[in-house]
Amino acid sequence: MAKGASFERDISKQLSLWWTDGERDDVFWRSSMSGGRATVRGKQGKATANQYGDITATDSIGEPLVSKVVIELKRGYKNWSVMDTLDSATPHTTQFYKFLQQVLAACKLANTDYFLLICKRDRRQPIVIMSKWLAGHPLMGTSPEYRKHIRGEVHVEGDTVHYCAMLLKDFFAIYRPEHFIGL
Questions:
Q1: Which residue did the predictor score with more confidence, 79 or 14?
Q2: N or C: which end of the chain has fewer CB within 10 A?
């Protein structure tokens, strides 16, 4: 639990610095109950603006991102990998599949197809797994960091989810906030 909260604070600061080109570290922060408030309200048929997933904007300059992209964070889980979708006899039972189920449910409540699933295993670098639009963005082919990625698809509850996974530092090097404003 403490690992997850610390990870959420750290990623919030990194996202803020990226979004503001290094000027501010306070644009994004942990959402109310890590998205739990939006989930509970969603089950009651109520919308909750910009509270889906683990990260929200604390300043209106960050709203273009969190209003269109659900950002879900996972830290400290053992025995999971993107590769589970390839070599598991029962991929629907893997932790990666469960991560995708959760972020897709949040996307449905938020009425968006776009997600960033940011994960970190112990003693490893954080990675980001992105949804289909981001995985197919034309910019992806123009950056040297693009060569260090994994693309795939997995079937989650009847939907085909196309994703791209890369190191978070490479994501920050490839993408600019402007790429999200026009979604």
A1: 14
A2: N
Each as own residue / partner, the long-range contacts of residues 130-136 (CB below 8 Å, 24 or more positions apart, any chain) are: 130/163, 130/164, 130/165, 130/171, 131/107, 131/161, 131/162, 131/163, 132/161, 132/162, 132/163, 133/183, 134/164, 134/175, 135/162, 135/163, 135/164, 136/162
Half-sphere exposure (Cβ direction) of 78: Cα atoms closer than 13 Å: 0
Question: What confidence category does residue 12 fall into, taking pLDDT thresholds of 50, 70 and 90?
Answer: very high
What's the pLDDT tens digit per position in 106-135?
898 888 889 999 999 888 999 999 987 676
State both tokens at 182: 């026009």
Residue 162 CB neighbour total at 10 angstroms = 15
